Amino acid sequence: MIMESRGLLAEGVYGLGVPDLPAYLLLGERPALFDGGITIAGPLYIKDLREILGDEGRLVFNFLTHSHFDHAGSTPYLRRKIPGLKVGAHPLAAENLRKPGAVALIRSLCEEFETKYAGLIAGEDVGFSSFDVEILLEDGMEVDLGGGMGFRVIHTPGHTRDALTFWLPRQRALITGEAAGVFDRNYAIQPEFLSSYNDYLASLERLARYEADCIMMSHYFTLTGEDARGYIPRSIEATVAFRRRIEAYLAEAHGERDAVVKRIYEEDFVGTGAVMQESRPYLLNLEAKVRCVADDR
Known about the structure:
Elements: E1 2-4, E2 7-10, E3 13-16, E4 23-26, E5 32-34, H1 42-53, E6 61-63, H2 69-72, H3 75-81, E7 86-89, H4 91-96, H5 100-116, H6 118-121, E8 135-136, E9 142-146, E10 149-155, E11 164-168, E12 173-175, E13 182-183, E14 189-190, H7 197-208, E15 214-216, E16 221-224, H8 225-252, H9 257-270, H10 279-295
Parallel strand pairs: 5-6, 6-7, 7-8, 12-15
Antiparallel strand pairs: 1-16, 2-3, 3-4, 4-5, 9-10, 10-11, 11-12, 13-14, 15-16
Helix pairs in contact: 1-3, 7-8, 9-10
């Protein structure tokens, strides 16, 4: 089954906010939220946390799949609203979230949405700022939240160097960030190897060994049953095919990367209208993917 990432998704796991910017709440004696969308999603998460937990102050952790603006953007807001909230992320993410250049880029990308969707925040200060990561998450770490709930940390570089996936053994579920790509409106898989094609493919092959019954994607959808079990193999196929497409376009363009970016943008973003992403972040990601392939030729 393919369903929107909203409401109860698996035993003790809820999708918060809106499906395009979901954060995943795992109940336990110490509840944990996975990811934190862009800044404008913060008030939506607080509202849902209040409804599910009774008091948003019961939230103990915010674990991040990676440090991109649409996964860590609302974390500073959540920390202001929930004193004592502890953040966990990969050490590289912790480092990145203190870099002035990275913070400025995250703030800039978020501010575009704050202007466009001002009605969602109703004048609240949701602005992004640098923050510290208290819990450094390493590959293989097991985190016990009490009450039989917990997860394993899987380092899945390739989308970013700091990318993590979380395995929930009780639910046989993966929270993947963009380590396994994203769907477009036609349920075609859009690969997301922004830092390394080879690392991304190796991470996918590692995730395939988990045989998940539930995959909670970074945007819009949660997959269960056969759709979940078949997704990672499909993502591997889509990743290999996209690399070959970029290689072919680079050859035709005599290595001119900008020409390849423009061609794919026109074909996929403009031509199909199926990409569920704003133009600026899509282009930034596409430029990175073309660069990964071109540098590896």
